Fold:
Amino acid sequence: MAQNKKVIGMVECAILIALATVLSLIKFVDLPYGGSTTGASMLPIALISSRRGLGWGLGSALVYAVIQQLFGLKNLSYATSWQAVIAIIMLDYIIAFVVIGLAGMFRKKIKNQTTGLIVGTLIACLLRYLCHVLSGATVWAGISIPTTAALLYSISYNATYMIPETIVTLVLAFYISSSIDLRSEKPVRVRKESGSPISVYSIIAGLFIAGGLIYDVVEIFSNLQNADSGEFDISAVGQANWCVIGIVSAVAAVVAIVLFVIASKTKKANKA
Structure:
């Protein structure tokens, strides 16, 4: 029985690592000097950690980190010394992606599943951001980052893609953990206190809200980076297509409200 659980865990981790890898190739914001906002590629690893614990999470994160390193081998050619090569490997890949496995650090300490996952994932995102900032301010200073005020530049540059990446990841983490019981052996829909599962209409409504929010974040932040220098430029916010952003937000909100109303009426009808 224990052996079967281990095999199931390994298969589940392999599937989620593969999903994370595929999502990492879907880039909404791709910066000229490295770094991108992806389709929530960190989330599958965070889910492993939340479901299986830190051991499984960190192990899966290490495998994912190695895969990302293989994708980024060309970046090592910019290193000016063997010390720089090691620093890039460790700060930009191994440590930066392994820390994602810490997302489940509160799975037993915080009773509420959603709160535990959100807090853990946020800390993991902040740690990854810190790794990239340190790498930019040291290894990449004088290469793709100006040597003057390298730390401030690195903080600004890496924030351009890590802020939307974090927001997208947290939004989807909240939605998934609110809808699915990740702590059960077989993932099932979360049940409310009354014992009835969350309505399908409510789940679809949540998808519309999450989709609208993710689109808005990506659309706005993709314009906040200077195309030539890669610096964070808040003044460029006016270049975002606010008309489309408004339409997408309005449609998502209206559809979600209608679905929530239907869900509420369906619930009352079932009780009657």
